[in-house]
Amino acid sequence: MQTYLTKSALELAQMMQNGELTSVELTKACLERIEKYDEQVNAFLHVDADGALATAKEVDELRAAGAELHPLAGVPIALKDNLVTRGMPTTCASKILAGWIPPYDAFVVKQIKAAKLPILGKTNLDEFAMGSSTEHSAFGYTRNPWNLECIPGGSGGGSAAAVAAFMVPLALGTDTGGSIRQPGAVTGTVGAKPTYGAVSRYGAIAMASSLDQIGPVTRTVADAAALQELIGGHDPLDSTSLTDGATNLLAAVKSEGDLTGVKIGVVKQLSGDGYQSGVLDSFQTAVEKLVARGAEIVEVDCPSFDYALAAYYLIMPAEVSSNLARFDGMRYGIRVEPTEGPITAQRVMAATRGAGFGAEVKRRIILGTHVLSSGNYDAFYGAALKVRTLIQGDFAAAFAKADVLVSPTAPTTAFKFGEKTDDPLAMYLNDVATIPANMAGTPAISVPSGIAEDGLPVGFQVIAPARRDDLMYRVARFVEETADVAASCPAKDWE
Ligand code: GLN
């Protein structure tokens, strides 16, 4: 492997600015690594070598001509395959979208193209971003570069595995209940979910619109901050887009000083029973190191968090059942006609959805339709919304006592394939620590904090108040400083 492939995106950008590396060289090295190892890892559903190299060549020529470029210009990136890309297949890892070529770019894709980052391709995910292991992809599961028998997390396992395996320095994911952060935790990478509204969702194929956010998947906190700055900003095409979203993120990471005066709240409900001992040890060690850097620790009590998972599995499927109604066999992707009987719109729709959606997607559509039905709405959906308000209240009280909140990102390290596929509830429990932030729209990041007794990485979560993504990145930087996990990934020695 070219040794520079283990460097961060900002370091690579600097090398290009110094004339030590060209974007074409870097992009070719990434493509070679994908070619060599992705048959095994299956991080990518689509690779666009020609498109990426064309952008790289353009960047090199512009740089040679002395043009002013975005600081990350020329650094390759991979996109989760639920972000629409004009002219490039977008499947959501579902058979129902096989063959669909979007006619437009997501807002974030437009930003990336404008800044001229070569797009290497689209990464694997659980179908329509529903899952915690990438085992629900219709196109085969992605393997974890730390241990090829283990899951890379989900739903964004493809983006996390691609970054962890040094196939690409930057990637994007989406996080509805933890799908950027939990894959980050189990692959030793950094994954950030911005404040709800800080990054436009235009062109992110909706799972649960009130919870979904697009965010960075990287190897360092500074790279994540730089990438969020690039993809963020106001977008009139997303009605929930903030007009004054998070800014000065990279500056916050680079700012001088330690954590003196910063109050860090350890959430009582987000550790203890059900968490692996190696995860708790790594968490504790990281907390002590933050104290050594001047932070003050306070314990915060968020009693409603105990109900977050249950409320999420009512609100999320309700929104899923509505959002996925658009896949009707008429407008996007495949169309399946019933094998017998009349061809009516309703029967084509039923045949298409029956053949096109996988079991987990169907389970959630049925659950969502059930909780929204007139006899159940108040008892289930209405009650879950009340719990959501209580969670938001708990956050408000916690942030009155602490500047940021911390917890392990996921209760365990990466588990083996098949371990939880027959038990949806066990699978859902992976997100117990990540879901509260989605329920309240607060920014949250997972940073590698160490390696557990089983030799697998552990993630540390930092949650900040809404619009304080800068503070989240600043604190996260001090966790990262204590554990150079990404560099220990066995993928480094492949070859
Ligand atoms: N694992 C969670 C779920 O299955 C979260 C998914 C996500 O964030 N997209 O719903």
Structural class: alpha/beta
What are the secondary-structure elements, in order, as H or E? HHEHEHEHEHEEHHEHEHHHHEHHEEH
Main pleated sheet: 11 strands, mixed
Give the helix tally. 16
**What do the pLDDT scores average to?**
96
Pick out its properties.
binds glutamine, globular, 16 helices, single chain, Amidase signature (AS) enzymes
Structure description:
By secondary structure, the protein is of the alpha/beta class. The protein is built from 16 helices and 11 strands. The longest helix has 24 residues, at 378-401. The termini are close together. Bound molecules: glutamine (GLN). Glutamine binds next to β4.
Explain the layout of strands and helices.
Layout (H helix, E strand, L loop, with lengths): L8 H9 L5 H19 L2 E4 L1 H16 L12 E4 L26 H8 L4 E5 L33 H8 L5 E6 L5 H7 L2 E4 L19 E6 L2 H11 L17 H6 L8 E5 L9 H16 L3 E5 L7 H16 L21 H12 L2 H14 L5 H24 L2 E5 L15 H5 L6 H6 L3 E8 L5 E7 L5 H12 L15
The protein binds glutamine.
The site of glutamine has 15 residues, from strand 4.
